[in-house]
Structure formats: structure tokens, C-alpha cells
């Protein structure tokens, strides 16, 4: 009798463990009955994700009752709970209604160089110098200074000052280039994950998504994105969202269909 109970206990334990072991689930996402590429599927329980291919197909690790968060630029936010049948067949088909979301256009204004001349200001400007002012030293020839150079405007400029000015200009150009590259990378990452992922999964305010990503740059998110390490990038974003100052005040988000 004891042996029979032991056998039954072992069998029951094996079944329970087998049910809780993550399995690879293959799925297909349809938007308005059309298989769609670049749809993001996030397993909220396991904090991992996948992206559908050109045929709308994807693969993701999951167990029974795991919730999959589905998001895309052109579809409504949706959550799907995996049933016992999904785990058994290792397959799921997801249908979502389309909905267009427009992103605000970002325009970067080019910074002007410190040596740039505003023609609007200088047009028809009267010439002011020692001769026009009829100063007593107007015709005095100044000694040649090897440390000065003459630019096209006729103004003598200290060579040391000019070098420092050029160095400052180059530094500002490098800073502007770095900021521009970072801004472009942030927009690419935002577009890749879609606003639905940040708002509904990470609980980040929509108007603060860019600030949140900016704060995550030091965590190497741009490098991870450029190396196509999507899962590692997703994990970094999820981890940093937990202590982000840009979290939604109300986490009970309701999606109202238009």
C-alpha cells in the first residue's frame, strides 16, 4: 500500500513539474486578418519578449496562465492569457484590430558656429575704424605680430584666441553630433518597442518616454540595440522602469476603443 502511494505521489509530482516547465510556444499574429511583421509579444510573467517575422510568426517561452502583452505601432494594445490547450498544442493564433498611433515629429535645430556671420546684421553696416573716426593714430603702422592672423573681414585676430575658438567650435560640433546620434537612436528604440510597451508594460508616462530612454543611455541601451540584443535590451528597460521617476501615477490603465 505504501509503495502504491509513493508511486502515485511521484507521478503527481512529475505531472506538476511538467506543467510548470516553460515550453516554446509558436504563434501567429494577424492584424485585420493579415499576418503582420514587427509585432512585439512580451511574456509579462517571465519578462521576456519576441518579435513577429514577415509571416507574422513568433516563438516565445511560456507556461499555462502566462499573460502575453501584444503591442505594435498600428494596432490596439491587447493581452492574451495562455490556456492549457495552448501549452498542449504549443501553438497560438492572435487576432488584433488595427488602430493608428501618430508620433510627434522631432525637429533638431542646428546650432550656429561662433564664427558664423549673420548677413542680415552686417548688410549696409557702416565701416567704423580709426580712419573713419579720424583718430590721431589712424595712419600709424603697427609692428608685425607673428601671433596674429588676418581673416577675410580684415580684422586681426590673436592666433591663440582663434585656435581656442576653433577648438570650442569643434567641441560643440562633437557634442551636437553626439546628441543627434543619441536622439536618433532613442527614436529608433521607441519605434521598435512601440509606445504601448512603455505605457502599458513599463507604466511610463507617454510624454516622458524619451526622457526615460535618455536616462537609460548610461545603461548601454544604444549599444544593445545596435547589436540587435533585443532580449537583453528588454530586460534593462524593465529593470530601470521599476525605479523610474516617470512612472504613471495610476497603474490601472484602461484602454478605450475609438
Automatic annotation (TrEMBL):
The keyword Signal applies. Residues 1-18 form the signal peptide. It holds the Pfam family CarbopepD_reg_2. SUPFAM superfamilies: Carboxypeptidase regulatory domain-like. The keyword Signal applies. Keywords: Signal. InterPro entries: CarboxyPept-like_regulatory. This is CarboxypepD_reg-like domain-containing protein.
Amino acid at each position: 500500500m505504501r509503495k502504491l502511494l509513493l508511486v502515485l505521489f511521484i507521478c503527481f509530482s512529475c505531472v506538476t513539474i511538467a506543467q510548470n516547465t516553460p515550453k516554446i510556444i509558436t504563434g501567429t499574429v494577424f492584424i485585420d486578418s493579415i499576418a503582420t511583421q514587427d509585432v512585439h509579444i512580451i511574456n509579462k510573467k517571465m519578462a521576456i519578449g519576441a518579435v513577429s517575422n514577415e509571416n507574422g510568426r513568433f516563438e516565445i517561452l511560456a507556461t499555462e496562465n502566462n499573460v502575453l502583452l501584444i503591442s505594435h505601432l498600428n494596432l490596439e494594445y491587447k493581452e492574451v492569457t495562455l490556456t492549457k490547450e495552448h501549452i498542449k498544442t504549443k501553438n497560438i493564433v492572435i487576432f488584433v484590430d488595427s488602430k493608428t498611433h501618430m508620433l510627434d515629429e522631432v525637429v533638431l535645430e542646428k546650432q550656429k558656429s561662433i564664427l558664423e556671420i549673420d548677413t542680415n546684421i552686417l548688410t549696409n553696416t557702416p565701416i567704423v575704424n580709426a580712419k573713419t573716426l579720424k583718430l590721431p593714430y589712424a595712419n600709424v603702422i603697427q609692428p608685425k605680430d607673428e601671433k596674429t592672423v588676418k581673416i577675410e573681414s580684415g580684422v586681426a585676430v590673436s592666433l591663440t584666441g582663434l585656435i581656442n575658438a576653433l577648438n570650442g567650435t569643434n567641441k560643440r560640433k562633437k557634442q551636437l553630433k553626439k546628441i543627434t546620434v543619441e536622439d536618433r537612436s532613442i527614436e529608433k528604440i521607441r519605434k521598435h518597442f512601440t509606445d504601448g510597451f512603455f505605457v502599458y508594460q513599463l507604466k511610463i508616462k507617454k510624454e516622458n518616454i524619451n526622457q526615460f530612454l535618455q536616462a537609460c543611455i548610461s545603461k548601454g541601451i544604444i549599444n544593445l540595440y545596435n547589436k540587435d540584443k533585443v532580449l537583453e535590451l528588454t530586460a534593462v528597460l524593465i529593470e530601470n522602469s521599476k525605479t523610474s521617476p516617470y512612472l504613471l501615477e495610476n497603474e490601472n490603465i484602461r484602454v478605450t476603443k475609438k
